Amino acid sequence: MKKIINPDKKNWSSLIKRPSLSYENIEPLAKKIFRDISNYGDSAINKYSKKFDNIELDSFKVKRDEILKAINNVPLDLKLAIQNAKKNIKIFHEAQITKPIKVETQPGVLCWQKKIPIERVGLYIPGGSAPLFSSILMLSIPAKVAKCGQVIMCSPPDANGNLADVILYTANLCGVDEIYKIGGIQAIAAMTFGTKSIPKVDKIFGPGNQYVTVAKQLAAQHKVAIDLPAGPSELMVVADKSANPDFIASDLLSQAEHGPDSQVYLITNDIKIADMTINKLKLQLNLLERKDIANKALNNSKVIYFEDYSDLIDFTNLYGPEHLIVCLENINEFIDKIINAGSVFIGNFTPESAGDYASGTNHTLPTNGYSRQYSGVNLDSYLKAVTFQKITPKGLSKLGPMVEKMASAEGLEAHRNAISIRLKSL
Amino acid sequence: MKKIINPDKKNWSSLIKRPSLSYENIEPLAKKIFRDISNYGDSAINKYSKKFDNIELDSFKVKRDEILKAINNVPLDLKLAIQNAKKNIKIFHEAQITKPIKVETQPGVLCWQKKIPIERVGLYIPGGSAPLFSSILMLSIPAKVAKCGQVIMCSPPDANGNLADVILYTANLCGVDEIYKIGGIQAIAAMTFGTKSIPKVDKIFGPGNQYVTVAKQLAAQHKVAIDLPAGPSELMVVADKSANPDFIASDLLSQAEHGPDSQVYLITNDIKIADMTINKLKLQLNLLERKDIANKALNNSKVIYFEDYSDLIDFTNLYGPEHLIVCLENINEFIDKIINAGSVFIGNFTPESAGDYASGTNHTLPTNGYSRQYSGVNLDSYLKAVTFQKITPKGLSKLGPMVEKMASAEGLEAHRNAISIRLKSL
């Protein structure tokens, strides 16, 4: 992990660069799979599941008895932990429910806004080495709080055509309506167009590798919304002398183990904290199972010392980290100045892991500097704000003449006439 | 305008089709302009402004004295109308301000969500035949209510290098920070990358022709967010015998005059209303200045009679109109069942024009069926929801062991360790 001392502001833009990713070579493949699934439906899904995952299934849909078996197989202590996480996530997302807004903007002109759930939601849960059941919690619980009509899920099965027990347990616990054993680009394409077996959805949520990322981008061009532009995971720790280097090192590694393209930063105004953290990192790294992955991620990562406290704030906002851990003495002063971040973890006993799994906040967050303009997944990600208005004849008699003037000034006489014809009738 | 009687449900999917638009032939040009402006900045803007708009300017930025002159030139009655619209739009968008949400999800685990304004916002206001100052109201007022740091605006100048007085007046009234005389693809590219003259922004808002639409799609691939996927404007009127055919005809025409690719629908369970509206349409059409445009739009449009009341609801939700006017006797019953619509206008004295200009709701709305998954522009379009959490040592001692179990079950030992190392220290 590279240490940098007091970088000149004119070099900051190079310091906030993420590991570069190019998806262009995946696009032609993704477009072909989208075309095929749009044209040939289930048979094309079968073709690509066989080709990429070496899987042939009679049916994509997980059956009730598979779920019952899975519920039986998950150890009780893990079940209790998942149930507790579910409770916290539900509480936090329920707190985000807003009441309809109703305002009489001028006499007789009543305007209101009501949030309406998106009808059909599709979740993608990656397969691979670890069963990421925590993403099911994060994506299905707010969908249910929002009262989306239909919540389906796709996830690639293992070599025997099965999904992990804990995946099925969690999906069932959270009320996912249907679970399908399909992975990768073909899963996203299936939810985009719909097939005989797989329903079309209105919005697709979920993490994934580069293939899934490209597929979601393509889906967004076919009248499906997506949760967020995806990118590799990131963590920035801001620390002063009040921080604990052992804790910081553990946090940096927890993010680094995600993948070789992850990025972790420590920024500090205390050079001792910088050096001690680097030492602790080396010690802790050697004990990790996913050491090789974490080590590669550390090559994309930096420890930066800033003499000026204000640089800590400015650099944080310029970087706009997905996850931000803040361990400072004057913490509130710093927190109030944060403009760009996905989720913020405050103090020495608030590791990112807590929010990744169970504290209640969502772990689906903007990466790659997108915290400048995007929220992480939250209740509103599953809702649409629809406006309504009702004007009384008396209200229109006051408002109407002003609308007539504005419409005429824009050269839109039919707009004006829709008012005039009503005013004349009064 | 084609009349259809009781269409079979299996044909509905063809009835909700919008006029098809293909942007593929514009994409190569847009990509070239993006590349050039990314590489050559202002000189590339100049090159394309000359090429497409036949404009050569010493400076893109509107000067203070141009604004002062414009303020002088706008007639007082129009100024008062614009000020009244501003007041209503401000009231309605201020009503959308939410308080931070703070919840202790379990003892010692405090989670909160705070909305933070997007720092830099860019508005695009089309030029052309009519000066669309109403879009400035709709896009800049919520930006100011949200307290965005910087609100800039681009709009193409006329042949003399000027923007319309009413455009400058409105932008100044609403507190737009800088106004630039640039149009089309080059304006969107300039705000995407930033140049010496034009600041880079985080999110681009605003309507535009097909060139601007493609440019906004490209911008979204360059780390800039956009308000909405754009498409031609639409209106659906749902009416029963309580409606007024003259009023309906005026509303359909107000939407049809927008452009030849606009689409307007009347759906009704009263065949007399259908026929009378078609007659009134013909009469009113002949009186319009923009008759040719409206007539072309009417070719994309339909009057549909449904015998069953429930079909009115189902067809509305399947179509998902941008604008929906509802003139029914049992209006509340219908309103409660609306799932997919951008903005809803209720009763015989609530023409769409009112919301287009001055009632208070926003007129930037999802078209082309996107009301299934997108909100129209609202206060939240200018804000990001950022989450925070703070866990006490005692809180972590309860939550931590459950996080450890979940992290281990996902095979992420460094995630587990970030908890364990803290629990051990207690």
Notes on the protein architecture:
Chain A is of the alpha/beta class and 426 residues long. Chain A has 3 domains: 148 residues, 3-Layer(aba) Sandwich (Rossmann fold), CATH 3.40.50.1980; 200 residues, Nitrogenase molybdenum iron protein domain (Rossmann fold, 3-Layer(aba) Sandwich); 34 residues, no CATH class. Chain A is 45% helix and 17% strand. In chain A, the strands form 3 sheets. The first copy, chain A, has a 6-stranded parallel beta sheet with strand order 1-11-10-9-12-13, sandwiched between helices. A 5-stranded parallel beta sheet of chain A has the order 6-5-4-7-8, sandwiched between helices. A 3-stranded antiparallel beta sheet of chain A has the order 2-3-14. In chain A, helix 2 crosses helix 8 and helix 10 crosses helix 11.
Summarize the structure.
2 copies of one chain form a homodimer. By secondary structure, chain A is an alpha/beta fold.
